Amino acid sequence: MDGNALLRGTRLRPGDLVKESTLLTPDDYLKMLHNLTDILPDRDTSFVLGQQLLPGHMGSISHAMLQARNLRQALEILIQYQAWLSPLLAPHLMSLGKQTSLYWTDSCVNHRLRGFIVEMMMAAVTGMTRWLSGVRLPWRYRFNRTRPAYIEQYAVHLGTETKFNDYFDAMLIDNDWLDYPWPRGSDMAANVALSEAEKEAPASFCRQSLLSALYDYLYEHVRLTPTLEKTAIDFGISPATFKRHLAQHGSHFQAELDQVRTHVTLQMISTHGYNNEQIANYLGFHDANNFRRSFKRWTGLTPSVLRAHLL
Asked: What is the pTM of this model?
């Protein structure tokens, strides 16, 4: 592959890629992926690239993932060190009754490449968990996009348990697999590696992107009916500046809040079996009808249709 072609439009030179001290900006990473799709336009490029990503070559962080005792710990490491292991999409865990969802929200991504990056990261987690567990885990995949024309690549690299036009981009698995012991796992080795990782990449250095930090903030404060003005104050900037920064990421405050409310609703129904009135009260709506109308606007479905689908 022509290194100059791969790095076209970035601030990097070919020699930079072999230096441990080189740090990529999100824009550089996105531009390289954009160039890669031009150099290798094959439909399997995202999946093949993803299979090489994890555990990665991030020193003690990757070593800790290699030594993870089970799926739960591996995913916790992925989430804790998202800035290093998955900088473009932020992974989250959600309990959905008898199953658990690893779902992804935007961190630093653009619309053109989002589908490519979702495929890449799901292939990365699939490949990593297959290797470290010694078995092909029974993941079920959900995509917030229309069914692609190259569906055969999904079957080859992810399997046939795929569903499109869903509420989020997620990988679902039965809870029994979370604590199933992995043959490579070692509590002692993993703990030592995690201690070293904290020294190499302390939490204060693993900065979140604006969208990732906002998602976590809204998820934590969703019961308080967060507003743009109050959130901007808590982020230490003016509402106008906050709106401008969100626009630069191709989003706006209401869209981010609606996304969080949708995800919380999924969890409330799946895990707790809440009815509309209970969810409306939890999310700060005036009444159940107001919540029902809002939920249909967010997802195109009524809560009752979602409930029938999930339960």
From this structure: 0.93
